[in-house]
Structures are given as C-alpha cells and as structure tokens.
Amino acid sequence: MSKICVVEDESSIAEMVRLNLEMESHDVTLVQDGAEALELFKRNFDFDLVILDVMLPNVSGVDLCRLIRKKSNVPILFLSAKGTTSDRIEGLKAGGSDYLPKPFDLEELLLRVAVLLNMTPKAGEEIITIGNCQVNFRTFVVVDTISKQETTLSKKEVALLQLFYSKQGEVISRTEILDKVWGKDQFPTTRTIDNFILHFRKIFEDNPKEPVYFISVRGVGYKFLN
Q1: Rounded to whole angstroms, how far apart are CA atoms 17 and 15?
Q2: Least packed by Cβ within 10 Å: which of 1, 67, 97, 200?
Q3: What does pTM read for this prediction?
Q4: pLDDT for 95-150, tens place per residue?
Q5: Is there a contact between 32 and 8 (Cβ–Cβ < 8 Å)?
Q6: What is the CATH number of the domain that holds 144?
Q7: Contact criterion met (CB below 8 Å) for 14 and 41
Q8: Is 110 in the same domain as 137?
C-alpha cells in the first residue's frame, strides 16, 4: 500500500480521485487548499506520490512542487486545466514528474500513478549499491566507495536508474523506457537511451565494454542485473 497525497480544490474531482485510489488499496490524504498543503508538507513529509492541481487557492501547485523538491525526490503528478506546452514545461521545470491535463480519463490517471509508483525506491532504499558505487536517489549523487569519486546524475538519469532498479532482471524495451521516463509528450530518439546507458556503464561498470549490470538485449532494449 502506497501513501498518496492529493491536493485538489475541485471537490468532485478530489473525491473521484480519492475514491478510485483507495479502491486500488492506496492510503490517500486529501487536501483542498494550497496553504493547508504547504503547512502539511512543512510539518511532516512521508508520501510515496503527490498529485497536485496547478491552480489552487492561496498557494499554487507549482510553488508547492518547488517546496517538495527541497526535501524529497518523491514523484509528483500535476493535474491542470492549463494544458498548453508552456504550462507543462513550467510544471516539469519546477520538479514535476508527469503532467496530466484536465479533463482526464480515469484509467489513464491510474496508469500514470502506477508507473510513477513503480519508479519509486522501496522504503529504506533511498540509497542503493551497484557494484562499488552507492547511489543516493534523494541527492542524485553516486559515490565510488573505492576511489571516493562522486558523480551527480541528472533528473532523467535518476528516473531511468529507478526504472531499471524497480525491474531488476526484466528486459525493458526502448519504447517502454521512452514512455515511462520521457513521457508521451516528448520525442527523444532511441539513441538518447543508448547514450544514457553508455554513461551508466562508465560510472558503474569495471569494464564498460563488457558490462555486467546494464545489459543490451539486441532488437529489444536493456536488462539491469545487480
């Protein structure tokens, strides 16, 4: 069971989202005012996912997102009637993980929630070990425990690494990676993924030309072994 905070001021939408998330066995905290959410996040932040309306009374969802990002890398899904490209870019630049314009299909909402939760490390696993390296998902920093060298990952690199970590031993297609990490509104090429994997191999593999963690599956995608 995941703990999800829904910040939405439209009562009908808020109750619909809450009810359906609870039917999926999630523990839902519902807040309908931006200022109230601000105080909640300042006091205690213990959520696996936050769903934020952009246009809220008193404090906007974008401002709340910026506050959350100061203390957590938790996935954030924006809901908004403002669905232009510039609005989506603003939300994503503030630290949002995904953006769903209103009106939305309930099945799509639940699917996006499932994807975002699947990319979240399990409790107690904000720091994981890959080979000689420790990865901190909260700070985005990788530390080589032997050389003590530190590498800072980008947000996309962290999202991709979290996806691999959540599906250890499974073959993940390039299409699935693009959909879950970049989303359907962005159009990178599969070569972009290949470049990310090459960078991971330089960081984590003893011999990048003979990888043991990030394995290519010809014609399909990649598999992560740890």
Answers
A1: 5
A2: 1
A3: 0.54
A4: 888 888 888 888 889 888 887 886 555 544 578 889 889 998 878 899 998 888 99
A5: yes
A6: 1.10.10.10
A7: no
A8: no
